[in-house]
Amino acid sequence: MIHYNLICDNGHAFEGWFSSSDDFERQSERHLITCPTCTSSTVSKQLMAPAVSTGRKKEARQALVMDQAQKETIAKLREMVKTIRENAEDVGERFPEEARKIHYGEAGQRGLIGKASAEEAIALLEEGIEIAPLPALPDDTN
Do you know which InterPro entries this protein is assigned to (predicted)? Predict the structure, then answer.
């Protein structure tokens, strides 16, 4: 299939798909191609930029592939997150409340993990409560 940008004699631009260049010519000669805006059958091809393959697509694909150093870093991060999870209490949605209790001495010191909205996290930080998000690692969400 060939894609052409077309224009009618009234200046309306539209596009069309044809099985070949000859197919376009045959249909055009028989006035079978009409403008969808004004139904004019005097239609011609517009200049089109050619589809040129560049190295950018290859570079983009290569950027998605991790090198050995990146793989090692991800492995270290994964181990760190595992250690944190093993040594912390998961309090889920109660995280902001439980973090405040510990910070203000209403509960004993312990490691916590849980969930907080962006607004809740900002509020905790503004109160001087030290928190940090656990990173979402490749393959954790895929």
Answer: DUF1178
